[in-house]
Write a structure and sequence with these properties.
about 70 residues; mainly beta; 4-stranded antiparallel sheet; 3-stranded antiparallel sheet; globular
Length: about 70
């Protein structure tokens, strides 16, 4: 099992098994952005994405990371 995606402001954030997070346009499915490999654990006991005030928060091997898309 993998972590569930998070959706905010027309962007779907998808935790990937490759220890990254992908951001896709919710309407078209186009890939907007992919995070660097930061050791995200996306299994049942792993990090779940959370979006707050337009930022994506994910826990990784080195702590908690915040990501946003520039507009």
């Amino acid at each position: 099992d993998a972590a569930a995606p998070a959706v905010a402001n027309g962007v779907v954030y998808i935790p990937m098994w490759a220890d990254t997070v992908a951001a896709c346009d919710a309407s078209t499915g186009a890939l907007l952005w992919t995070s660097p490999d930061l050791g995200f654990s996306v299994g049942v006991e792993g990090a779940q994405p959370a979006v707050v005030n337009g930022l994506l928060y994910m826990g990784g091997a080195g702590g908690v990371y915040a990501f946003g898309l520039s507009t």
